[in-house]
Amino acid sequence: MSKNWSEIYEKRPLSMLVRTMINMNGFSNRDVAEKTRYSLEYFNNKMNRNSFSVKDLAEIGEICGFTLYLDSNFARFDVTELLKEE
Asked: Which CATH number covers residue 31?
């Protein structure tokens, strides 16, 4: 049975974003799980449930060479930098 990626993307957009970042850099789920200090099972569960926080996305993005921004007409914030201030 072939996967209909557009349906999967609509149901799990954050997981597809994470999958894209991982694939673009040749990483595996295991690589990212280890770098985020999650077990592989926990990371895969987050992927299946589409349950990533902003902090998760910023951390995974940083691991994969991306920067997560909040952008408006008035300001642009690097989320990674904002999270480091916590």
From this structure: 1.10.260.40
